[in-house]
Amino acid sequence: MRSLVLGGALVGLIVLAALLSFLWTPYDPTLVDAALRLRGVDWAHWLGTDRFGRDVASQLMVGARTTLYVGLVAVGVAALVGTPLGLLAASGPRWLGELVARVNDLVLAFPALLLAIMLGAGFGASTGTAMIAIGVATVPSFARVARAAAMQVLTTEYVLAARSAGRRPLAISVRHVLPNVAGLLIVQSSVSFGIAVLAEAALSFLGLGTQPPTPSWGRMLQESQELLAVQPRLVVVPGVAIALAVLGFSLLGDGLRDRLDPRLKGVGDAGR
Amino acid sequence: MIVLRRAVILLVTTAVASLVVFALLAVLPGDPAQVALGVNATPELLAKARHEFGTDRPLPVQYADWLGGLLSGDLGRSYVTGEPIAPRLLDRFEVTLWLVGTAMVIAALVAVPLGAFAAVRHRRTSGVLVSAASQLGAAVPGFLAGILLVEVFAVHLRLLPSGGWTPPNADFGAFLRGLVLPALSLGLVQAAVLTRYVRSAVLDVLRADYLRTARAKGLGPVRALVRHGLRNAAVPVVTVLGLQLATLLVGAVIIERVFVVPGLGSLLLDAVGTRDLVVVQDVVMLLVVAVLLVNFLVDVLYAVLDPKLRRA
């Protein structure tokens, strides 16, 4: 319950900041002004300015948008590809299950960072290459969760009943299995979202993700890392934002899991 | 039997992975000859460079040549410097292995006792605190931990270097001092993740019937856990450790950039910067093979630790 509330609040805060940034930010986050370089925290600039004179609070708000956008697309891709794969593997013939498992092994050997590097080497790094790389790398987790959960549902009596009534496997998957595994997939989405946020931050930090001038938390950190001794705020602000976002999504995932499956309460908080 | 089966799967997956790496980098836009010579190169010079690089041959021939080279230890020559890649790759890999190995040891040394502690005391404040701290720690990006560690130990306390690398056979003391901060940044974040798994695995064991039986026959809580619980808790923990080794190899790429460590990650990122695609291809392949090999070893170890799975 506590993790659900805390996680929900953190995620809600980030979503609010991102939504608000479409309508209003204190300043233009990309506005460079040499006269305003490295201003401290004051009423005009709540979180000060960076070394280009850009307003940090505004960058943080628009950065939340980037973070959520990358997470949404990456997790969306992973869920849309991984879930059907998992369901097919569970309900299809044995060889199909085996094939999906092998493809999973293969994709697992390509972490998001390596995929992003390869895509970036060819197309030039962008928010798009980062999203696709993170999304593809996340497919196996969805395929696994969907498969494991579907296997359980497939042994239940109502599925047996549907089968003996002559329903086709595909119809059973869609009508009976999917609604019953949806909860677990939502939990997985929240957990994966947290991992995607971390991956996006790392990619942008390395210059392999979101490119200037679009604000992103990872790049804010990278641009100001050598200023840590003089202006620690410039590193701490985006750093805390990243950590809170990751924490928020993982707490939300844990909280939802406890809600959905009271049996796992306090036990499954590390199981993925 | 399971080992043989997994070994065959490993070989096939590696072969397919090599095809994926080659295909991805071969179909991507960008002509290495053009990149090497610049935009002002004449068509004759370009043709000559393509011939030298071998990129004027049909793709299947290029793939077969690259794969043959991989198997015989010849990784080709850099498009940019013209030097053979294999010796440089091995040097860099050694650096990364030092980093990852040390981080792994740090992670295990911190996480196993902390996780067990958090599980045994899961109802008390101390256990809950450890648990909450590990959840928070797992949300911190490794590069942020690195930047903060540099600030404290290199800039303020001046105890350790903020970056760079000394090979162990040059000056062992300097090597150790240079290793501490990058390995800590990598290891502590992993320790936080691992602590959660250890806690959850030990909690499962604490609730198991056989542990209750062990307690009922008169063993104290610690002895019961050590004699009967830890081996069972080890199965999921070993799996996670293996998966984490893969995460660490990739995490090292980022940490090496923060600490200017000349490992595999720096080599890879530099090659991306200069668009030295053949180097990118080789480094990615090496990392992929390392991940696959680790997963294979985890599967085998899994079977050894858990007799129930031996016939699966």
UniProtKB/TrEMBL annotation, chain A:
GO terms for biological process: transmembrane transport. The keyword Cell membrane applies. Residues 64-253 form the ABC transmembrane type-1 domain. The chain crosses the membrane at residues 68-91, 103-123, 129-146, 177-199, 234-253. The keyword Transmembrane applies. Keywords: Cell membrane, Membrane, Transmembrane, Transmembrane helix, Transport. It is found in: Cell membrane. It is a multi-pass membrane protein. One of its GO terms (cellular component) is plasma membrane. Its main location: membrane. Belongs to the binding-protein-dependent transport system permease family. PANTHER family: OLIGOPEPTIDE TRANSPORT SYSTEM PERMEASE PROTEIN APPC, PEPTIDE ABC TRANSPORTER PERMEASE PROTEIN. This is ABC transmembrane type-1 domain-containing protein. It comes from Kutzneria albida DSM 43870.
From TrEMBL, chain B:
Keywords: Cell membrane, Membrane, Transmembrane, Transmembrane helix, Transport. Belongs to the binding-protein-dependent transport system permease family. GO terms for molecular function: dipeptide transmembrane transporter activity. The keyword Transport applies. It is found in: Cell membrane. One of its GO terms (cellular component) is plasma membrane. Residues 93-298 form the ABC transmembrane type-1 domain. The lineage of its organism: Bacteria, Bacillati, Actinomycetota, Actinomycetes, Pseudonocardiales. The chain crosses the membrane at residues 7-28, 97-120, 132-154, 174-194, 233-255, 283-305. This is ABC transmembrane type-1 domain-containing protein. It comes from Kutzneria albida DSM 43870. Its main location: membrane. It comes from the Bacteria. It is a multi-pass membrane protein.
